[in-house]
Specification:
It is a single chain. This protein is of the alpha+beta class and 286 residues long. It has two domains: 126 residues, Aminopeptidase (3-Layer(aba) Sandwich); 135 residues, Gcn5-related N-acetyltransferase (GNAT) (Aminopeptidase). It has eight helices and twelve strands. A twelve-stranded mixed sheet has the order 1-2-3-4-5-12-6-11-10-9-8-7, sandwiched between helices. Strand 8 and strand 9 form a beta hairpin. 41% of the residues are buried. This is N-acetyltransferase domain-containing protein.
Length: 286
């Protein structure tokens, strides 16, 4: 049987075809699922959506998605043969990504195939851990509480969001613009939260980035350097995760930069477990 790749720009059509396959690994594929459902619900818009479904015979064996510009091509786990078919299909649609992102082995192979077609080289842009929590391990109480961000806290949210982008994505060319997008889409929707101490000081931030049917993705975790080492990030992540479990989700998930062992340790301490390593590869122009 041969591989066959379907190209689609419609999020609903892509979801109708791939929902069952993607939801078998809901936390692992939270990014692709969340983007798709965000577009369908009109929570988010993207400049240009390109979706690819890879089949072997009648069986779906892989998916890929690109949201325009210099964003990476997002991959599900798939075999080398499926990747070869995917690369052929993207080239047929006049598309060469600058980066690819997905489960480590798939992303590495996909980047190498694209690079060989262009006479280019590849390099690891970032190693990420995808973590999942199903039950919170509570940190020691410190008298603080989780509070929802308000429009009055826009300046603080924007400042911390920009610091978050600069620390986590140092090669991001427009960190302020990305932070402004986060504030615009998350703060007004009630998806930004802070940890407030017993004295009334706001010391840490986290947000609900996206949802899938049974999970919520936590992101934008930031504590100012002078406030670190006191467990505030653990507290805000633990309580925000529990909030979404209380709202009916069966799990929460998050991405981490594996080059930052301190934050990874903090997430594990409140109940997150690593499911897989994902990698972002850059494909350098020849």
């Amino acid at each position: 049987m041969n591989y066959h790749v379907t190209f689609d720009r419609d999020a609903q059509s892509f979801w109708d075809a791939n929902a069952e396959s993607l939801l078998r690994h809901e936390s692992e594929y939270n990014l692709m699922i969340g983007i798709t459902l965000g577009i369908i619900s009109a929570e988010r818009t993207w400049g240009e959506l390109s979706c690819f479904t890879v089949r072997h015979g009648s069986k779906i064996v892989g998916q890929a998605m690109h949201t325009g510009g210099d964003k990476p091509l997002i991959l599900s786990s798939m075999s080398p043969g499926a990747v070869d078919a995917l690369v052929d299909a993207t080239i047929e649609n006049d598309f060469f990504p600058e980066r690819v992102s997905g489960p480590a082995e798939t992303a590495e192979y996909c980047a190498s195939v694209f690079a060989s077609r262009r006479g280019a080289k590849t390099s690891i842009f970032q190693r990420q851990g995808i973590y999942e929590l199903r039950e919170v391990i509570w940190p020691p109480p410190d008298g603080g509480k989780l509070i929802s961000g308000t429009p009055e806290q826009r300046d603080l949210t924007l400042e911390w969001a920009e610091h978050f982008v600069r620390e986590c994505f140092p090669e991001e060319p427009e960190p302020k613009a990305l932070a402004e997008d986060m504030v615009k889409n998350r703060l007004g929707a009630g998806h930004v939260y802070f940890w407030e101490t017993a004295e009334g000081d706001i010391v840490s931030m986290a947000g609900r980035n996206r949802e899938s049917p049974n999970t919520a993705t936590i992101s934008w975790v930031y504590t100012p350097p002078e406030k670190r080492g006191r467990g505030y990030a653990r507290s805000v992540v633990a309580h925000l995760s529990q909030l979404w479990l209380d709202r009916g989700k069966t799990a929460c998930n998050l991405f981490t930069n594996l080059a930052n062992p301190a934050s990874n340790k903090a997430y594990v301490s409140v109940g997150y477990e690593q499911l897989l390593e994902a990698r972002i590869y850059s494909i350098e122009s020849p």
